[in-house]
UniProtKB/TrEMBL annotation:
Record-given protein name: Transport permease protein
KW Cytoplasm (keyword) present: no
Predominant location category: membrane
Native organism: Kitasatospora kifunensis
Sequence similarity: Belongs to the ABC-2 integral membrane protein family.
Transmembrane segment boundaries: 34-53, 65-91, 112-141, 147-171, 183-206, 245-263
PROSITE patterns: ABC_TM2
Any one GO molecular function term: ABC-type transporter activity
Residue stretches making up the ABC transmembrane type-2 domain: 33-266
Compartmental location: Cell membrane; Membrane
Amino acid sequence: MTLAQSFNVQRPSGRRLLALARTELLLLRRNRTALLTAVIMPIAMVSGLHSILKAQREHLAGVSMTAALLLNLTVVSLTFGVYYNLTAAYVARRGELVLKRLRTGELTDAEILGGTAVPSVLLALLQIVLMAVGIAVLLGLPAPVNPVLVLLGLLLAIGVLVPLAALTSAVTRTVETSGFTTLPVVLITMAGSGLLVPFSVFPGWLADLGRRLPATPALELLRIGWLGGDGSAPATSLAGTWQPALPYLVSALIWIAIACWAAHRRFLWEPRR
């Protein structure tokens, strides 16, 4: 029985999605390159990011260095673990005609794309949890000011990176070229997030541009939720985090809607010719 045929039996939507996700997890285990990229790279960047944060210490007055380190590593994990790996996964499944065959069954388009995304998302979340535990044990890590905002930031960041991966796969011919086609979004997301380098060091127009990038609003929610502010001023209380977070919440939802619409229109289910 083929992968597509295994989904042709009558199953509730949730069970179909989980079945596809389990299959994708097995395939991910066999992809050593993707696993190495997703797991080792964020860990290998710890010392480099720590050096960058030390150099920006004067712009991070009153901000925990360990919390800032975790937020930066979270950006790396989401960018590579979700966006990069998922772009390659979509291209690989398309080239193998798996996506085309799955569409002949009962799975909806959203279930196919969502099920394919589950392993990359879970891997990135596992990285973040392990790094948070490691930093807390080895260096000490303050608790987030608003855990709800942290969770919302994670979910919304994933919500925009998944359709961006689907959109990028449409202009990617092979898995090997995914490293080049994803590079612009990777660099822009990491450099323009305001986490690696605070917006306060940018010229005003460049900082405003960075705040309007697709993934930045969700990442700002992470920052506000954990630090209690944008890092340029002392932290506020839990209640004081909601007002500055609201514009970013609205912006993140708008970007998710735009990215989903674009991915729906441009995603390719068959190999590019």
